[in-house]
Amino acid sequence: MKAKILIAAIFFSGMISAQQTQKKTEETKTIEEVKLSKKVFVKKSDRFVYDVASSPIAKGTNSFNLLQQTPMLSSTDGKTFKIMGKSNVVFYINGKRTLMDAEAITEMLKNTPSENIQRIEVVTVPGSEFQVEANEGVINIVMKKSKTNGYNGTLKMSNSQTFYNNPSSGIALNARQNKWSFSTNFNMGSWREREKYTLTNGNDTFQNNSLGTMDDPNKNYGGSVNIDYEINKKQNLGFSYNMRYNKSFGSVLDMTNFENGVLSNRTVNQEDAQTRNHNFNLNYEIKTDTLGSKLTSNISYLWFNRDKVSLGESFPLKADGRYSAFQQAVPQIINNYAANIDYIKKFRKESTLAIGTSYNHTNTDSDTRQNDFDGTQFVTNNTLSNHFIYKENIIGAYATFEKKFSDRFSAKVGTRFEATLSTGDVVGKPDIGFERNYNNLLPYATLNYAINDNNNITYSFSSRVRRPGFGQLNPSRTYFTPNNYIQNNPFMQASKNYNQEINYMYKNAFYANLSFNFAENAYGQLPLQGVETKLVRDENGNPTYDADGNLIKVTTKFLRYIRTNYGNNKQLGLTLGMNKAWFGDIWTTNYSANFEYAIYKGSVTKDPTSQQIPGDTEELQPYTIDVKTLNTFFQANNMIRLSAKKDWYLGVNYWLMPTREMEIGKLHTQQSLDLNIKKIMGNFTFLVELNDIFNQNIDDVRTIQSNGSYNTVRSFQYRREFNINVTYNFGNQKLKKAREVKSANDAIRSRT
């Protein structure tokens, strides 16, 4: 009997064991099936998530190229990104805003291997906790992490051939030992640009034409140091330092000018400029519970210095012409002190409360000096020489609450309050100055509903303030020719922006986005034509007379691009897109089409920066904006795996932007076909790129007013480019990088 029981026990045990084995096998198969069908592009509560680690595209390239393949993102100039073809971008890394200016960010992205990235998050309507302006969107790059001690690094070398040959190189190092994390990078390169200009302006009675080129040699050096110390399991202390130095000595703009078809003069502007940018940040973080609640604080200091000196000369090419020249020095020094405190409270029922406060103090000093040649020597032009000092204080506070009501429905609401106090003064010129104090309450809300596993819909609303850049407020000029120039304006005011979006996603591959943006008191860089009449004066500044006793006058027609507020604009946009892999990830596609109906309305009738010496006069032709237009943008990115070993890839990318209208005029059709081929050999990656194969990426803006006035700006920038890139990864590639931290002066960086 015992034997039978024993046999039965063994039998049932075997059955149970077999069932468990079968169950484990089924579970294993299930897990494998989930892994094979892992979603690469998904919609979360307030953002789109591109899981780079699960995509075949993210192999052996750099972060910039990877972003170009990311759904909803586009780059038409190889330097900057836009979201859905319209919104400007602010970069975050691991949820913390980057501390670098736009050029430094581009260099950083091009020197960061794509293998270091876990995912890319695109936030089309940022919440109240983000420090952004206007309708800016956010790109958050989440880096891969590991607890492994050791070190790793990346060495990158590239060579680019456009009109000139431009080499560059960079190195990045990361180290981790127990509680200490350290990362640093350094990159350097030369970039010499050639740009060909065609400028035209006039009306039915006269015409000015200018033809010429600009050569701009640049030496770039940049780098950063990040140190993070884990005090204990709950507390971290971090320090970061970022720097960038750009040297552009010997830049030359050479233009030949015609008046009514007759050679008038040749103007040559020579410029030496250098930019230095240093940013320091100290960060402290403490976790307050096991749910993920934490308190963070930052103090930051930013120092930005740009020195620019130029010599502009005009050589006569007609019998009655005369030589003229000016010297100009336009320095700008920015000091920013900032601090912020943020607290995130996590609750057990999948809800989060975030509150924070910030303070920014900025002081800019711009001592612009201009000297004009009077025939024998250079004398100070007191009208165009301005020592402009701008001070700004921004006090901010925000609160957001996010709650997941069910597996399908979640919501997030919040508001941000900003108090801005600013003053601008020109030393010795009390008429050019202002004091502004204004407050803004900026609400935000988003609702996300997953209809089922294949359908998701989201609604978002936000309001933001757009403040002018510090350089745009400095009342200085940038000359194309003596009579064609950009005029900055210290009297520009901030604009208010309201943004709404409805987004629908199907099967995490197809999406549609409907958006509406309204800008109140919008500003831009607008062309003003006019006539300036000046008295000819002697060396003592006294008017001169002809033989008949009449005052001698000189009349000049000019085109002045002034930065100023003009009115309101509205934009209704629709984006349709697809991100999908085919044939077992052999062919990966990222296609999108953007349609935008825009209304720009306003006018500019005067130049508030104009200062006339008694006896001189100036007449401006009003510039009226009344534009209703449909703008479109199309993009198709393809990545094809050429080998079963996954070591050869072919990229075929194309974008088309048909003629579109803007506040400044009509931008004519632009397009670009780009090809690249990539070979992976162990730790080495070789990438060859050919961009803008047919030389169709040209800036051509034309403006026609109802009164017959017109102007055109055609800029050919030689964007056809042949690149060879070699990247070598060494060390432990699973190493965790130093903790990226948020800087207190995030909002200031984009305005330098």
From TrEMBL:
Signal peptide: 1-18
SUPFAM superfamilies: Porins (SSF56935)
Pfam family, one: OMP_b-brl_3
Protein keywords: Cell outer membrane, Membrane, Receptor, Signal
Taxon lineage: Bacteria, Pseudomonadati, Bacteroidota, Flavobacteriia, Flavobacteriales
Protein's name in the database: Outer membrane receptor protein involved in Fe transport
Record organism: Epilithonimonas arachidiradicis
Domain Outer membrane protein beta-barrel: 287-728
Location within or outside the cell: Cell outer membrane
Domain of life: Bacteria
GO CC, any one term: cell outer membrane
InterPro entries listed in its UniProt record: Beta-barrel_TonB_sf (IPR036942), OMP_b-brl_3 (IPR041700), Plug_dom_sf (IPR037066)
